[in-house]
Amino acid sequence: MSTSSTFRGLPVIPSEPLTTTSPRSIRKSFLAIEQSEGAGARVRRSIGTPQLRNLPPFLMLDHFSISPGAGFPDHPHRGQETITYLLSGAVDHEDFAGHKGTIEAGDLQFMTAGRGIVHAEMPRQNVDGSPNVGLQLWVDLPKELKMCEPRYRDLRASEIPTATADNGRVVVKVISGKALDVESLKELAYTPVWLLDFTIQPGGSVKQALPKGWTAFAYTLNGTTIFSSNGVSRPVNQYHNVVFEQDGDSIEASVEEGADGEARFILVAGMPFNQPIVQYGPFVVTNREEVVKAITDFQTRSNGFERAEGWESEIGKNMM
């Protein structure tokens, strides 16, 4: 897949020192309810719902489960980036520019839709018939980059550094950003975003620094995680989105000594933009006129959507 680009994102690691002196408190926490999406897929959507319409710069978070025969056939995007993190199975990707690829368990794909792209995302057939499970996060692009050329960057599981703490009871995959003095690979997305995958064993605890002023949330995948701030501790169960207050420089997380098993959560932080968010399905722009233009451009196959004329993905034909 192509990774070249004439643009460069803002720094992923801020220049000011990171500290853990003022842990953030929880603003809200809620269960992500499972629903249907695409063609036969099941998702737990937490960002992009009435509970949480958007959380700048984040537009949507889906925890998806795609069984064989289901998926996301040919569909367009404009004005955002998508980050797909596969937890199990494998998912194929194909777009109208001729890019094709597959991500497997532990891999990620960072896609910049920019001025326009049409693609399909379809699951592989697993031998045991199990579903393909992962997370997809939609991230806003700064206004000046919304009409940039599309691009991709894949990150393989083997490329992701890990860090440990608390005598091995805390392990974090540093997908993007910095944790426990370990830094990730750079320039995976234009919008500065941290993605950290934490697993905490019973009795383990961690203090994780965050860039000041950035939006931050956690999505709980397994077990019960305790988030603490200012002497208040709050246990959060599986499949919850935990939105943290903007004030503070870190989060504190732990698992009870006597817990039945480990807890796992994804911690996400991003630099918010001071710009309007106007979303119409897969098109994310900054005003209503741009929505109309995006729809017209897609329908007329122009201004970024020229290659959609007559194009059909091969992998999407599996749905026919």
TrEMBL record:
- Superkingdom of this entry's organism? Eukaryota
The record's listing under CDD domains reads: cupin_pirin_C, cupin_pirin_N
What are the binding positions for Fe cation in this chain?
H75, H77, H119, E121
For activity, the cofactor(s) needed are:
Fe cation
Provide a Gene Ontology MF annotation, just one: metal ion binding
Keyword Zinc-finger in the entry? The reply is no
Signal peptide limits = none
What are the UniProt keywords, alphabetically?
Iron, Metal-binding
| Cofactor binding notes | Binds 1 Fe cation per subunit.
The Pirin N-terminal domain extends over 41-139
The segment(s) forming the Pirin C-terminal domain are 196-303
| Location of region: Disordered | 1-22
Q: Which family does it belong to?
A: Belongs to the pirin family.
Q: Which PANTHER family match?
A: PIRIN, PIRIN-RELATED
> What is the protein name given in its UniProt record?
RmlC-like cupin
- Organism equals Sporormia fimetaria CBS 119925
Q: List the top taxonomic levels of the source.
A: Eukaryota, Fungi, Dikarya, Ascomycota, Pezizomycotina
